[in-house]
């Protein structure tokens, strides 16, 4: 398809057979988790929206856009939802369980405190992996909101003082 649609660019980029075979192997490995229909839809989208021969990353993005079942947010929307979700995270009404699990795998602290240039690529890797697993039939469940709420009751004033004294002794702060 790309050879026909991007004729001159294709032959300029892949002028020798060895290079073309290497690129085909690379693309085959990268697109292996998509089924034939998703790859064809992704290729069609690339052809319709690109003026130039697509990169592998652009092809992956288009295949992922075709892969998302109903109700699954785009990676960017999922990232923003994970970053802006209030604590406790288990009590938040998530648009899809994959968003919660991608945020959990990335780390809530990292999402809240690191720059987007650092946190988004990490989140995106986890999100894509979980979406692939979801496509293979993995079931993702949200945690029980009562689980986080059922924490230990606060210590009494006397127990708090005793615990503080133990910590000071352990850290040798009284010296």
In a nutshell, what does this entry contain?
67% of the residues lie in helices and 0% in strands.
Features:
11 helices; 175 residues; mainly alpha
How would you describe this structure to a colleague?
- The chain has helices spanning 2-5, 7-13, 17-30, 36-49, 56-67, 75-84, 97-106, 108-113, 116-135, 145-149, 157-171.
- By secondary structure, it is mainly alpha-helical.
Shape descriptor reads elongated
How many strands? 0
Order of helices and strands: HHHHHHHHHHH
Q: What is the CA-based Rg, rounded?
A: 24 Å
Mean pLDDT: 86
Largest sheet: none
Number of domains: 2
Structural class of the helix and strand makeup? mainly alpha
Low-confidence parts? none
Could you tell me how far the N terminus lies from the C terminus, measured between alpha carbons in angstroms?
A: 76 Å
By oligomeric state, this entry counts as: single chain
**Beta strand %:** under 5%
Individual helix count: 11
The share of residues in helices is: 55-70%
What is the strand and helix layout of this fold?
Elements (H helix, E strand, L loop, with lengths): L1 H4 L1 H7 L3 H14 L5 H14 L6 H12 L7 H10 L12 H10 L1 H6 L2 H20 L9 H5 L7 H15 L4
